[in-house]
Amino acid sequence: MTEKTGFAPAAAPHASTIVSTPEAAITAGETTIPSQGENMPAYHARPKSAAGPLPVVIVVQEIFGVHEHIRDICRRLALEGYLAVAPELYFRHGDPNEYSDIPTLFSNLVSKVPDAQVLADLDHVASWAARNGGDPHRLMITGFCWGGRISWLYAAHNPQLKAAVAWYGRLVGDKTLNSPKHPVDIATDLTAPVLGLYGGQDTGIPLESVETMRQALRAANAKAEIVVYPDAGHAFNADYRPSYHEESAKDGWQRMLAWFRQYGGKK
To answer: Which residues form the Dienelactone hydrolase domain (predicted)?
Structure first.
């Protein structure tokens, strides 16, 4: 199969189920966001015809960076009426497109990106959105894989956040200097409602860890919900990969939109 351009090399092989969103009704493109003394690259999309400030969704990348799939997620959200912004959160440390396999990408780049730096960068994304047609009172976040974990953390970091949806982000893990806390550690600190979407066949996120997180959320009396799709594995929303599970992905997308509507999305 000829590889589609715009997708991360480490994510190969690419599947034939790639979803591509038309841009006729939206405005989309690259920008830079000032953050911690540097200009962070980002992709953004919004509906062409919008009256007044738009609800904002920060889209947090998988380990592969802001490649074509994440850009298309932004376009899909723009069609739903959101200003969607996906920042390049590894930009200080390297380019994920330079890696052709996941283990090397993770060890040489992803593991070197500090959580604290990422959370501060996301604060600057929120500020940029508020200055560029976004409504700061309707701020949401969603993320996938690596970004799913970050979405949990951000829901305990920014009290202005209204809602978060975490797609198959790791919930437990070893504590390191760059990652001193994991979602299970911050259940008591959540200030925004979080929806977690997980695959029952995900070998990297065992159901035991999902149950551990559920217990932590119950103990914290947190406003959160975790949905497990029994037939889906990891990255079940990644329509460009063989892991794509269409039924679960479509259900998860509708649940995400409903979560955003319920907890501070569109008026």
So the answer is: 40-263
- Helix H, strand E, coil C: the string for 56-108 is EEEEECECCECCHHHHHHHHHHHHCCCEEEEECCCCCCCCHHHCCCHHHHHHH
Q: Is 145 a catalytic residue?
A: yes
- Per-residue pLDDT tens digits for 46-72: 999 887 899 999 999 999 999 999 999
Distance CA(63)–CA(6), nearest Å, equals: 15
Cα separations (Å) of 181 from 109, 172, 173? 19, 9, 8
Active site residue 245: no
For the stretch 181-201, pLDDT in tens is 999 999 999 999 999 999 999
Residue type at 47? Answer: P
Catalytic residue among 74, 234, 239, 245: 234
Assess whether 202 carries a catalytic annotation: yes
72, 115, 135, 202: which one is catalytic? 202
Q: Looking at 145, 157, 182, 239, which residue is catalytic?
A: 145
160, 126 in Cβ contact below 8 A?
A: yes
pTM: 0.96
